[in-house]
Specification:
Elements (H helix, E strand, L loop, with lengths): L2 H17 L5 H19 L1 H6 E4 L1 H7 L8 E6 L4 H12 L7 E11 L7 E10 L12 E8 L8 E5 L9 E5 L2 H15 L6 H10 L6 H14 L8 H6 L4 H6 L12 H23 L1
Parallel strand pairs: 2-5
Antiparallel strand pairs: 1-2, 3-4, 4-5, 6-7
Length: about 290
C-alpha cells in the first residue's frame, strides 16, 4: 500500500474536521471508508451493472440528508446470490491505491429481509495497512444487499461527490427519490403502531418536500403498493394520525445526525402536514 496516499487521506480527513465543527474525525473516517467500499463495488463491471444503491448513505450523499449512517444498502437485480457473495468478497480486497484497507469479511444471510432475503457483508477497515494481529480490533462496517425487492428498470444514474477534495466523482446507480419516499410510506403504513423505524420519520420529512415531480411521486407510490400487493390508504395523513407512535418516539434518540435534530413531536407534526399534501397530490394526479 502506498504510504504517501495514506498520509494524503489522513491529512484530508483532518482538514475536513478543522473546517467543519459538525463532523468528528470518526464520522469522516466512516464516510470515506463507505465511499471507498462503494468504489470497489462499482469498479467491478458485473456489480456496477446489477447493483442499485438505496438507504441512508444514498440520502446522505445525493439527497442532502444530515442523517448519519455507517452502512450501505443496495439491491441486486438479475444476478444470483452465489455470484453476489463471490464478487463482493473479491472486490473488497482489491487495492485501488486509495489508502483504504478492507478485510476480515463475514457474510450473514438476512432471511427476513424482503421476499427473497438479503446478505449482510460485515468487514473491518483501516486507513493504511493494519497489523495482522490487530485486525480483530478494527472498526467494522457493513453492506446489506437484498434481492428482487423491486422490479427492474427503476433506478437513476448519478454521481457521488467524495468527501475528500480532489477525488474524482463516483458513478453509481441509485434509487430515484420518489421510490425511496414510496417505499418508506409503504413501511410506515404496513407496520402501523408496531413501527420502531424512527429514521424513516426523519427521512420522510426531509425528502417529501424535495419531490417536485408530483406525477413521478404518484406513479412511484402506486407501483410500490401494487408490487407489494398492498392497498393504498384513502389518506396517508389520517392513517398515521391513528398510529400509536410510542415505539417511534422511543427510537428517536437512535437517529444520529450531523446537524441539530428537531424533537420527535415537531417532526411527527411536520410529517402529518406533508402527508396531507401527498394526499392532495394523489387525488389530483389519479383523477
Amino acid at each position: 500500500m502506498n504510504t504517501e496516499t495514506v498520509k494524503k487521506v489522513l491529512r484530508g480527513i483532518r482538514r475536513i474536521v478543522e473546517q467543519n465543527e459538525k463532523l468528528s474525525i470518526n464520522e469522516v473516517r466512516i464516510i470515506v471508508a463507505l465511499e471507498r467500499a462503494i468504489a470497489r463495488l462499482i469498479h467491478d463491471r458485473v456489480l456496477q451493472k446489477h447493483l442499485i444503491f438505496k438507504g441512508g448513505f444514498v440520502l446522505l450523499k445525493n439527497y442532502d440528508s444530515s442523517r448519519f449512517t455507517r452502512d450501505v444498502d443496495a439491491l441486486a437485480l438479475a444476478i444470483s446470490k452465489e455470484k453476489i457473495s463471490e464478487l463482493v468478497g473479491e472486490v473488497l480486497s482489491v487495492d485501488l491505491d486509495d489508502g483504504l484497507w478492507f478485510g476480515d469479511l463475514k457474510v450473514n444471510e438476512l432471511t427476513e429481509a424482503g421476499q427473497y432475503g438479503a446478505y449482510r457483508f460485515g468487514f473491518a477497515f483501516q486507513i493504511g495497512e493494519p497489523e495482522q494481529k490487530k485486525i480483530h480490533n478494527l472498526a467494522r462496517l457493513h453492506i446489506d444487499i437484498g434481492f428482487s425487492d423491486r422490479v427492474s428498470g427503476i433506478h437513476a444514474d448519478s454521481k457521488m461527490i467524495p468527501i475528500l477534495k480532489g477525488d474524482p466523482p463516483l458513478c453509481w446507480n441509485i434509487y430515484p427519490l420518489e421510490y425511496i419516499v414510496a417505499e418508506k410510506l409503504h413501511t410506515l403504513i404496513q407496520r402501523g403502531s408496531a413501527n420502531s423505524r424512527a429514521k424513516d420519520i426523519f427521512d420522510l420529512v426531509h425528502l417529501i418536500p424535495k419531490c417536485v415531480d408530483k406525477k413521478a411521486l404518484v406513479a412511484a407510490v402506486q407501483n410500490v403498493f401494487d408490487h407489494r400487493k398492498a392497498p393504498l390508504p384513502k389518506s396517508f395523513a389520517e392513517t398515521i394520525v391513528g398510529i400509536d407512535n410510542v415505539f417511534l418516539t422511543q427510537g428517536w434518540p437512535s437517529v444520529k445526525t450531523l446537524a441539530s435534530k428537531p424533537s420527535f413531536e415537531e417532526t411527527w407534526q411536520s410529517l402529518i402536514t406533508f402527508l396531507a399534501g401527498v394526499d392532495g397530490t394523489m387525488i389530483s394526479y389519479r383523477s
